[in-house]
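Morning. Coffee machine broken again, so started the prediction first thing and wrote up yesterday's gels while waiting. Chain of 134 residues, entered below exactly as on the submission form.
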Amino acid sequence: MVLDPIADFLTRIRNAQAAHHRVVDIPASNLKKRLTEILYEHGYILKYKFEEEGNGGQGVIKVALKYDNATKTPVIKSLKRYSTPGLRQYRGKNELPKVLSGLGIAIVSTSQGVMTDKEARTKGIGGEVLCEIF
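Came back before lunch.
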């Protein structure tokens, strides 16, 4: 049983990149699916595929990791968990973090769904800051 599924998601990606794997399998949930979509939209991963389980389970997310062609280094330099189950980090619309002065993204869980810090700032809402990626 995983106590912090978001930290598990980030750690699986971090470990797969350290081992230079092309694809990583992650147990699926609706939150993890949305995190994967955000990573794809912002160009941090090549592609992804949701595979459903036949017996009512959540299934698996297959994530194809992205590497720089010239140096063979991962595109994602850092994955950092911000809010944890033991210490939730909520921020208002004016307090949302800017990762590397806007070069990275922070993923925020808001009342209108999971989105990036830029989208939340545009909509004028705050929420729980889940993680930072650059």
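Strands lie at 23-27, 45-51, 60-65, 79-81, 90-91, 105-110, 113-116, 127-133. Going to sketch it on the whiteboard this afternoon.
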